[in-house]
Amino acid sequence: MTARRQLIVRSIAVAAALAAGAPGLALAQAKLKVAAVYTVPFEQQWVGRIHKALKAAEARGEIEYKATENVSNADYERVMREYATGGNQLILGEVFGVEAAARKVAKDFPKVAFLMGSSLKPQAPNFSVFDNYIQEPAYLSGMVAGGMTKSNRIGMVGGFPIPEVNRLMNAFMAGAKETNPKVEFSVSFINSWFDPPKAKEAAFAMIDKGADIMYAERFGVSDAAKEKGKLAIGNVIDTQAQYPETVVASALWNFEPSADRAIKLVKEGKFAAEDYGVYSHMKHKGSELAPLGTFEKKVPADIVAKVKAKQADILAGKFTVKVDDAQPKSTAK
């Protein structure tokens, strides 16, 4: 058979399959349409990691990606519905303040796949949930902080005292206690996901009371530490490049394993309601401790050794970091 005839036969077969409604083949011929709805700007740490993973999939040519940032809770349902009626096959976002509305949209569009940041359970058949279960590297970063503090006082500034924040703070505190049982913590929440000036002000107050290391769960905290000549521990993203003399270590969240899994399942027609939380664990490469970088020679060698040993135990399943969603309390007197 000539190359020309092969091409004609192949074209006829594809056309016939499409006419018969073969969904797998249809999806293979076109990029998956993916949309995301975010209540905060792309630059915010948590949302930034989701956006980064989806942009990477877009760059690989796997998806066609659209996203809307800074959507108010009151407007969230409308934007979700617009994306669902616009032919998007997978919709992502964070619905912590709009759970009921988001789940209602999912019920109204059973053929659309939804993967949403949520504190609640999946909803059959098409509403999957995820969360940044990065308590493992948070514990490791706490071990580093415990070994670096000289005043034995660590300040911690969080957004809201919800499980997603609490579990990371509690893991960090437990890690710090392992390497330094004498350490005390000052804990406060700014009741905002993105208010750098307010976070900075809260950090200043803790530094004034003796904290020499700050846990930067929110943007603004590392700025305060830098201005006061103190140290900081990063969360979700690595900002050491911006604060080379301030940020010692960071617990990183990688959303790629979750995003890539959802994209693959939707393309295969196998997407179902499930909890993606496990794909944030270190064994799935969903989280990691950032390289010490500029602090590689500044962190005591014995602390580095302990952190490496603990990381190996976590990856081998010999040590499990406790998931503690209770609101952390200050212990500093």
UniProtKB/TrEMBL annotation:
Database matches in Gene3D superfamilies: 3.40.50.2300
Signal peptide: 1-28
Alphabetically ordered keywords of this record: Signal
GO cellular component terms listed in the entry, alphabetical order: plasma membrane
PROSITE patterns: TAT (PS51318)
Pfam families cross-referenced by the UniProt entry: Bmp (PF02608)
Domain ABC transporter substrate-binding protein PnrA-like: 49-270
Record has Phosphoprotein as a keyword: no
Domain of life according to the entry: Bacteria
Protein name: BMP family ABC transporter substrate-binding protein
Source taxonomy: Bacteria, Pseudomonadati, Pseudomonadota, Betaproteobacteria, Burkholderiales
